[in-house]
Design goal:
Blueprint (H helix, E strand, L loop, with lengths): L6 H34 L5 E20 L5 E16 L2 E2 L4 E11 L4 E10 L9 E9 L6 E10 L5 E12 L8 E17 L2
Length: about 200
């Protein structure tokens, strides 16, 4: 609250603050009602803030995937990112993605959870993004889905996702010859998305 040395001005200022304070309170209550009404509206959904159209790399499995036999697996997914762009346009060069995951999976049913680190192209000027993700696949002839959220670095709080399709593998999925590695290409961009709703 403002003070002045002149008592007359002080009384005038106090009266002014009383009147305007009431008006501001009414405005703030009206604004709160509008905000609540806005929150009740459907969310606009997620919008991409960074996206890479190309993702190629490999996935290693230890001890290896076996058909119709679920067991603990340690998984490392690595890849190269290309065709990246953000809010400021296209970014030259390539980036990398690494996910280290654990879970119980078989050759036909994959559910692995763990950490992810994305190093965006140097030209983007972005810090690496770190987070938590889940790698899933319901059947051996389907793509993998990789999805989660960034918890630190660039785009903290953003959702991250991509889909990848196996193009080659080492091992047949038998007990004697489990699948220990796979090569993949993406079927959907690797994208960081934020909710603008």
């Amino acid at each position: 609250m403002f003070t002045t040395r002149t008592t007359g001005k002080l009384a005038t200022r106090a009266a002014f603050l009383t009147v305007t304070g009431g008006a501001l309170l009414g405005a703030s209550l009206t604004g709160a009602g509008a905000a609540q009404a806005s929150q009740a509206q459907p969310e606009r959904g997620f919008s991409s803030v960074e996206s890479c159209t190309g993702v190629t790399g490999s996935i290693t499995w230890s001890p290896g995937l076996v058909r119709n036999h679920t067991k603990k697996e340690h998984t490392v997914l690595t890849g190269t990112l290309s065709g990246c762009s953000g809010l400021n346009g296209a970014q030259a060069g390539t980036g990398t993605v690494t996910a280290v995951l654990n879970g119980r999976s078989s050759a036909g049913s994959i559910v692995q959870t763990g950490s992810i680190t994305v190093n965006w192209p140097t030209s983007s000027g972005l810090n690496p993004s770190n987070g938590n993700v889940t790698l899933r696949r319901a059947a051996s002839n389907q793509p993998y889905s990789l999805s989660g959220a960034f918890t630190s670095g660039a785009f903290t709080g953003a959702a991250v996702s991509t889909n990848v399709l196996v193009t080659a593998h080492h091992g047949t999925g038998s007990i004697a010859h489990p699948v220990t590695s796979q090569q993949y290409v993406n079927t959907a961009p690797l994208a960081a998305r934020v909710n603008l709703g």
